[in-house]
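Dear colleagues,

As part of the handover before I leave the project, I'm documenting each prediction I ran so the next person doesn't have to rerun anything. This entry is a single chain, and its sequence is reproduced below.
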Amino acid sequence: MAAMTPTPAPTAPETGTPAPTAPETGTAASGTAPETGTAASGTAPAAPAAPARRRPRPRVWRAAVLLLAGAYFLVPLVASFVFTVHVPGQGISFEAYTQLLSADGFTESLLLSLGLAAATIAASLLLAVPALVAVRLGSPRLRPVVEVMCMLPLVVPPIALVTGITTVLRWGPEHLSRTPLYQTFLAVQNEQFPVVLVLAYTVLALPFVYRSLDAGLRAIDAPTLVEAARSCGASWPYVVLRVLLPNLRTSLAGAAFLTLALVLGEFTIASLLGFRPFAVWIVTISGAHARMSVAVSVLSLLITWLLLLVLSRAGTDPATVSSAPRTSSTSRKES
C-alpha cells in the first residue's frame, strides 16, 4: 500500500502538466486570430484602392503609343505636303498638284498600272480561290504544302526573280526564233500592256492573297455549307459562286486591296525589265520635277488610305456579318 500510495501522486502533476499547453494553444490561437483578422481587415480596404490606381495606367500608355504611331505616320506626310506647296521666295503654291494631269506620261503610266493591277487581281484570285477551296474541302493534309509554295515569293528577292524572267525571255530570240512560240515571247513583252509584269506580280501577290483567303475560309464552316447546298441539289459552280464566295466577300476584298497596293508601288521588276508603270514614272520625273513627284506620292498614299477605309467599312457591313450564321444554321438543320 505504501508503494502504491506515492504512485498516483506523481501521476496527477504529470497529467496536469499538459494544462499549461491549453493556454499556449489558446494563446497561439488568440494571437493568430487577431493577426488573421488584422490582415483581413487590412486587405479589405486595400482591394478597391489598387484597381483604382492601376486603371489610368493603361490609358496613359495607350494614348502615348497612339500619339507616337500617329506622329510616325503623319509627320513625314505633313513634311512632304509642305515641301510640295511651299516654294522658297514665292510662298504657298499648288502648282505641283494642278500640273499633274498635264504632265507628260502621268495618265498613261497611271492607266497602265491600274490595268496591270486589275489583271493581277483576276489572275491571283482565279489561281488561289479554287486551289484553297479544294484543299479545304477535299484534302486538308495538303494545306502545309500549299502554304509553303505560296509563301516562297517572300523568301526569293525580287532581283533574283527578275534575273530568272530575263533569262527565260532571252530564249525567244536565241532558240525559238523559227517557232510559233517566238511571237508569244514578243506578245508578253508588249510595252502597251506587258503581260510578263502580270505574271511576275501574280507570283509576288500570292502570299498576301493566300493569307487573306485562308483566314476567310477558316472563319466559316465551309464543309457544312457545301454539304447543305449539295444535299439541296446545287451544282459545284453554284456552290462556289452563290454559297462560298458571298461568305468570302471580305477576304476577297482584302486580297484585292493588297494586290492593288503591291502593283501600284512595285518598282524593281518593272524598272529592270524596261517598262514604265506608275512607280517608275514617279522616279523618272523626280529629277526634273521633284515637287510634282512628291505630290503624286502623297496623293497615291491618300488614295490608298481611302481604299483601306472603304475596305474596313465593307468588312463591318451588317449584311455580311449576319449572312454567315444564318446560312450555317440553316445548313445544320438541313443536314
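The two ends are 98 Å apart (CA to CA). Strands lie at 86-87, 91-92.

All the best with the project,
I.
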